[in-house]
Amino acid sequence: MDWQTPEDSVPSRFVTEAEVGALLANPPSSGAWRDGDRPGDRLFAPLGRLDFEHGGSIPHARLAYETWGTLDDDGGNAVLVLHALTGDSHVLGGAGNGHATAGWWAGIVGPGLAVDTDRWFVVAPNMIGGCQGSTGPSSFAPDGVEWGSRFPYTSIRDQVEAQHRLLGHLGLDRWAAVIGGSMGGMHALEWAATHPELVDRLAVIAAPPVTTADQISLNFVQLEAVRTDPHFQGGDYYDAPDGEGPHRGLALARRMALLNYRSPGELNARFERSWQSSVSPLGHGGRFAVESYLDFHGNKFTRRFDAGSYVTLVEAMNSHDVGRGRGGVGAALRAYAGPSLVLGIDSDRLFPVSGQEEIALHLPGNLDGTRPAVLRSDFGHDGFLIENALVAPHLGRLLAV
């Protein structure tokens, strides 16, 4: 595995010494893409003033996005693909030239694939609050200093409002489909509830209708790992020298998250009780292989992500409740009558299938009636990023309607 492959899109496996060696240098204070870095395949949509629903505003917000395929003359083939918490706009393409990792869904989106770019014009934005080109805590405010702790509290609805403005920027009046997994699935649900007339088809993958107390508690521990890192400095750490950013807290949060993204079955089968080296972890200073795996990916993550964005986006996930102010989940989802796919994963311990069951129950156009489609996978929540052969036929069913 190339160390620039997104860790959530491949099966777990042993870490090599060469991979560890690739990460020996001190990381910068933030792994964010910054103005002046190579843009790669990014395009940028100016959004104007963005007011946030719980207070605060950004006077000149923007979304970074990427596109693939050709837009039809009538604009009727545009598909919006929405990423998970630590994803970005780079759905398809290699690492390098401004992209820290290779495309995170390259087995699903592309010529001849489930989301066929010979047929569809695919648009993938980096969400507001993120750190890969869209306005977020690491972006510069009008005073020339990073927003940092001043960045407004951001909700899922704020992020969808930004995506709605992207629709206008592109000169489009609707999406042929909105497809989202995990946090992107929260956005997809919000699109269906807020703008049902603008969404021809809907795919909600491995996402819940609301973020539950159990999920908020898991998120809270990750947030505290970042916030209690003394180098976080309340969110204003961007002028710190290399190696003195909030890396320990962010890496610890990532380790916790990975345990929720994978299943016990996969971790046990991959690593068992194997040692990382010939030195015993039983009182002799060695390590279990799974410990090295988590350490490596926590360290790697700090080089492509921003701690302030992590806090902002996890808080946005906690805000998610598609029924808030709409009479509950059922009333909110019944507003969307278009064809819909609801897809869960049987081993998902982050967003269990019970959440997808509730969503499917209330979507009138669900392809599978009142039940979700369920993938049988050992990979847990990340199964939707790994199990391309299982995910593809379901998206094919939706896009054939």
UniProtKB/TrEMBL annotation:
Residues 77-365 form the AB hydrolase-1 domain. Transmembrane segments: none annotated. Its EC number is 2.3.1.31. GO terms for biological process: homoserine metabolic process; methionine biosynthetic process. One of its GO terms (molecular function) is homoserine O-acetyltransferase activity. The keyword Transferase applies. Pathway: Amino-acid biosynthesis; L-methionine biosynthesis via de novo pathway; O-acetyl-L-homoserine from L-homoserine: step 1/1. GO terms for cellular component: cytoplasm. It catalyses: L-homoserine + acetyl-CoA = O-acetyl-L-homoserine + CoA. InterPro entries: AB_hydrolase_1, AB_hydrolase_fold, HAT_MetX-like. It is found in: Cytoplasm. Keywords: Acyltransferase, Amino-acid biosynthesis, Cytoplasm, Methionine biosynthesis, Transferase. The active site is at S182, D348, H381. Pfam families: Abhydrolase_1 (PF00561). The keyword Cytoplasm applies. Its main location: cytoplasm. Substrate binds at R254, D382. It is an enzyme of class 2 (transferase). Transfers an acetyl group from acetyl-CoA to L-homoserine, forming acetyl-L-homoserine. PANTHER family: HOMOSERINE O-ACETYLTRANSFERASE (PTHR32268). HAMAP family: MetX_acyltransf. NCBIfam families: homoserO_Ac_trn, PRK00175.1. Belongs to the AB hydrolase superfamily. MetX family. Homodimer. This is Homoserine O-acetyltransferase. It comes from Plantibacter flavus. The lineage of its organism: Bacteria, Bacillati, Actinomycetota, Actinomycetes, Micrococcales. The gene is metXA.
